[in-house]
Every structure is written in structure tokens, then in C-alpha cells.
Specification:
disordered N terminus; about 475 residues; globular; 2 domains; two-stranded antiparallel sheet; alpha+beta; five-stranded mixed beta sheet
């Protein structure tokens, strides 16, 4: 264990390197950059272009002037962040090319390729990020966005990644400040959201905002605990009271989850990139990765890793309380995974809803939760030898053995009800938007938590006061 927890240098970077960007959001140029970006965003179309013939469109001179203000502010702030010099040079070139091209569909591939934050992870290192992009679970349009982020890469996490959970593309992040696209539910910074002329052959980083995840988790879980009258173990209550502990739990959870997408006995391309599959397949994949992180956290806790017990609480509470009742019910695959975990734990008497009070058997929770992971992994291992449609049907059987399908479901009636002359991707059309509706328990919980969940839009670590349930 000493080998894993031993301090390691922050990738060879001096502390002054990290501290050089400490005052970015307090610099006057940051306020000017935000104002210029926010002026441009309403002018943009869904694809990021500006149509100067549209009602309410600016004059070309106004757009040019706003873009020049963005570029001037980036130039000023870049001096505070010398580690990103190549990216900022490419960014300025992309900004000016967009302007000189008449603000058509933006193409920031050159600056995306130059931005390589995962190559030099250092705890506290800041990055100024400006791209035309959509924000996952946030703004669906490719608007210009600007944000300042800090990397979360403490020595204990770097040691685990280096010795046990290799994940060279992973970035734990916190927000310093952001424009409107991140004043939403988005908690990720992904390169695939950025407007480019062609997708790179492979991406080289992916960022998760553990501060937003932690703050959201704390607010929703505290409300759910009150509503459900759940008696918390002492260490779980202490976790909910501590934003920093929650952030550390989420960054470890996310790092293990992220690498799990490419580890194990998997069907080809388990993450289903560019494939059209029933949404329960996505739900099982996301749940498999979370349960793998949970199982690894049990092992790490036995070895003395302080953050590992917190990961177990985070996975259970976030999956049970927030995921099923967040978002709409149209192909809500994360919600489905949370419903499945609750139903599995309830079926095996780990979770009980008695006398309007929720009870969790924490002594049995690790073992039973691991068994659900085993069932999903067995499905995957056997799926390697099955045709795609058979694999989908077996996955449906697994989910439907714990969750009641919609009574109008065609898929629930089995293969005899499906038009098997169609290719599998066409049969996805027969999947209902809400194939596995919420149970009565979750319908009631959703009503109780609706306001609290809505209050977490745009939340950051500074929002420490719980909202009323």
C-alpha cells in the first residue's frame, strides 16, 4: 500500500508553474473576455455560425469588434498561463480565421489538437479554455464558450493512476469561472463537443468537473435523506458535510469509471460510439462502470485508502437518489441504471422501505452490489458469442427481471412480437421513450425532490447551503 500512497512529483512541474495562473479570473481581461463572448453567443445559429441576414443579427462591424475583444483578452491572459502557449497561439489563429471567413460554421480543429492538458497534469494547474462547443446536459448549440478550470491531481490520485488505474487521458477539474453554456447541468469538458471540420483520429483528454458533481451530490442527497428519513452512518454524514472530501471521492470514482469503458470481457465497442442501440444498453454500460468503481473502492478501503469508503457512499447515494429522478423520461439511460440498482438491492433485502422510512444494510451492501456487477459482466462475456439482436434481448431480460417494463412495450412481449425481417437498428424504433417507467416509490420521490434538483443547475463548490426539500 505504501507504494500506491507515496507522494509523487506533479509530473515534474515546479509549484510556480501551477501558481502562475492563480489570478486569471481576477484579471480585468477575464471580465472583458466573458463580456465579449456573451455578446457573441446570442448572435450564433445552432451550428455556431452567424447569419447576418437574420432578424436581430449584428452588423458585420459589431461582430468583428466583439471577436477582436475576445482575441485581445486571450492574448493578455495567455501571459499568465505559459504552459498553454501553443494552444493559445492556435486559438488566436482559429478565432481570426473564423472572423476573416465571415463567421461561417466555426472550425477550431487546430486549437483543439494543440490543447493537451492531460500531458502535464499537475494539481491546481489552471487552463483558460475557449471553444465553440455544445455542453453535454447543458446547451445543445455550438456557441462560443470561455471557462477557466483548475486540474485536480493530488499525489494520492496520481499514485493510484500510475500504479493501478492507468488512465492517461483523464482530467479531474474544478470550475474557476465560466460563460453561460456551463451555467447549466453540464459537468464535463469533452473534446467531441467542439466545432471542428473533422473529428480527430483519437481524442487525447476528457475532463470531469468533480466540484459540480460533489456539490450537486451533497444537495440532492441531503434532501433525499431528510425526505426518506434515512439514518446515516457517522462517516457518511461527515462526508456530506465536507465538499473537499466529496470532490476527492468523485475524482477517484470518475477515474476508475472512465477507464472501465475499455476494460473487461466486452462486446465490440461497448460504449456504442456512433452506433444506434436501445437505451438500456447504454444504461447497463454506465452502471457496469459505476459498479466496477464501487467494487474497486471496496478493495481500496480494505487496503487503507482514505477516499475509498467515500466512493462507496457516493455511488450508492447518487445512483439511488439523484439519477432516477433527474432529467426527462425519454431514453434516460442513467436514470434506468439507478432504478436497476435500487430494485436489485431491494430484491435482495439490502434496501427496505418500511413505515415510510428507508433502511440500508451497509454491512451487506458491498457484497450484493458486487453481485449485480457480476451479472452484468456475465451478460457481456456471453454476449461476445451472440448476434447483436440476441445480445440486446438478453440484456432486456436482465433489466426486466428487476424492473417492470411499460405495459404497452413490444420488446417486453419477446422476439415473436418484433418484426425480425428488419435490421436490428430499425427495431430500436419499437423501443418506447420510457420503456421502464418509474416505480411508485420513485414517482413520489421525484415530486419531493423536483425543486432541489432544479436548484442544482449551474451549481459549483461555493454553493454549500442545502436547498429546502
Amino acid at each position: 500500500m505504501a507504494k500506491i500512497l507515496a507522494p509523487v512529483p506533479p509530473n515534474g512541474h515546479a509549484r510556480s508553474d501551477v501558481e502562475s495562473g492563480a489570478h486569471v479570473v481576477r484579471h480585468p481581461a477575464w471580465a472583458r473576455l466573458k463580456a465579449a463572448v456573451e455578446a457573441i453567443r446570442p448572435w450564433q445559429s445552432r451550428d455556431g455560425s452567424i447569419d447576418f441576414r437574420a432578424d436581430g443579427a449584428p452588423s458585420r462591424e459589431s461582430a468583428d469588434a466583439a471577436l477582436d475583444r475576445v482575441a485581445a483578452a486571450v492574448e493578455e491572459l495567455a501571459a499568465l498561463l505559459p504552459h498553454d502557449a501553443a494552444y493559445h497561439r492556435a486559438l488566436l489563429a482559429d478565432l481570426r480565421r473564423w472572423r476573416d471567413g465571415g463567421f461561417g460554421v466555426p472550425d477550431f480543429l487546430d486549437s483543439l489538437l494543440a490543447f493537451q492538458p492531460a500531458r502535464s497534469r499537475a494539481d491546481g494547474r489552471r487552463h483558460l479554455v475557449v471553444f465553440p462547443m455544445y455542453t453535454q446536459n447543458g446547451n445543445p448549440d455550438r456557441n462560443l464558450e470561455a471557462l477557466v478550470v483548475s486540474v485536480v491531481w493530488p499525489d494520492w490520485l496520481a499514485g493510484l493512476e500510475r500504479t493501478r488505474y492507468d488512465n492517461p487521458l483523464f482530467l479531474g477539474l474544478t470550475f474557476d469561472d465560466f460563460t453561460a453554456g456551463y451555467d447549466t447541468n453540464s459537468a464535463v469538458l469533452f473534446p467531441e463537443t467542439i466545432a471542428v471540420r473533422e473529428a480527430p483520429e483519437r481524442f487525447s483528454w476528457g475532463g470531469i468537473f468533480c466540484d459540480r458533481e460533489a456539490a450537486r451530490f451533497r444537495r440532492v442527497t441531503e434532501a433525499a435523506v431528510r425526505v426518506l428519513r434515512l439514518a446515516l452512518p457517522e462517516d457518511a454524514a461527515a462526508l456530506l458535510a465536507d465538499q473537499r472530501r466529496c470532490q476527492e471521492a468523485f475524482v477517484l470514482w470518475d477515474m476508475v469509471h472512465d477507464r472501465t469503458h475499455s476494460h473487461g470481457d466486452l462486446p465490440f465497442d461497448p460504449f456504442m460510439i456512433k452506433q444506434r442501440q436501445p437505451f438500456w444498453m447504454y444504461g447497463l454500460e454506465e452502471l457496469r462502470c459505476d459498479l466496477t468503481a464501487f467494487r474497486e473502492a471496496v478493495r481500496l478501503a480494505d487496503e487503507g485508502v482514505a477516499q475509498a469508503r467515500d466512493v462507496q457512499y457516493a455511488v450508492i447515494f447518487d445512483r439511488l437518489f439523484r439519477f432516477p429522478v433527474t432529467g426527462d423520461r425519454v431514453r434516460n439511460y442513467d436514470g434506468l441504471g439507478g432504478q436497476l440498482l435500487f430494485a436489485y438491492l431491494h430484491r435482495h433485502d439490502v434496501v427496505r422501505w418500511t413505515d415510510n422510512t428507508l433502511h440500508i444494510d451497509w454491512a451487506r451492501a458491498p457484497r450484493v452490489t458486487s453481485r449485480l456487477c457480476d451479472e452484468i459482466e456475465a451478460l457481456y462475456r456471453e454476449g461476445i458469442d451472440r448476434p447483436k439482436l440476441v445480445h440486446w434481448l438478453k440484456a432486456y431480460e436482465l433489466v426486466a427481471s428487476y424492473l417492470a417494463p411499460h405495459p404497452g412495450s413490444v420488446w417486453a412481449k419477446g422476439p415473436d412480437a418484433l418484426d425480425l425481417s428488419k435490421p436490428p437498428r430499425k427495431l430500436v424504433d419499437d423501443v418506447l421513450p420510457d420503456e421502464f417507467p418509474l416505480s411508485m416509490f420513485y414517482e413520489a420521490l421525484a415530486r419531493k425532490l423536483r425543486g432541489v434538483i432544479a436548484s442544482t443547475r449551474g451549481i459549483t463548490a461555493s454553493a454549500t447551503v442545502p436547498a429546502a426539500a
